[in-house]
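Appendix B.2, paired examples.
Example (i):
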Amino acid sequence: TYGFSMWLAGGGVKRGYVHGETDEFGINAVKDIVNHFDYHATLLHLFGLDPQRLTFPRNQQELSLIENQPARVVTEVLKGLEAGTQVLLHPPDTVKDDSPVQKRSS
């Protein structure tokens, strides 16, 4: 996984926190690796959205930002949660039919 930099502020993010490290060239992530699925899951969690249920249309398919990947909410960057706390992402088959689905209308 390549290293990437993001600046986050407000909305439940810890102030002045630096997460992870890259190699000496700044290319590859080497410590506390976060992939783009984790990043998306974390942002959607902060917005109060379930990343498994939020979908968008593309090429006549309904897709999500994490597409059934092993994404996790990066709790280390969030205020009020201990590092390593698990935030469960609900797979699509656990959603009840009568619950409102966060889906973009066409």
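Example (ii):
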Amino acid sequence: ETAGDAGPCTFLHDFCDWILFTLTGEDVLGLAPIVRLENFISSCDCLDLQILKGVLQGENYEKLSEQLFVSSGTVNYRLKKFYKTLYLLGRQALEEMLLPAIDLELL
């Protein structure tokens, strides 16, 4: 299973979450954020993951761009893409959402 593929586990998580939500009208197990985060991380390429790790380490755009040999515009673009994909308002919300990913060893 590659980073861009939606594997059977991802589908199963989404399907179970959808069934629970459909039957109860709510996220009974509180899995929606975890499933969304897992799906997001599994769709990231190597550069995305390096940017996410840098964000968690408190790096700014300029330092990340220097370390990764890309422009600061690339880092900014990708971070904005993350915010949009995860329905977040900014970097602080992204950092808060990524903390469980460390505990779950997704990052």
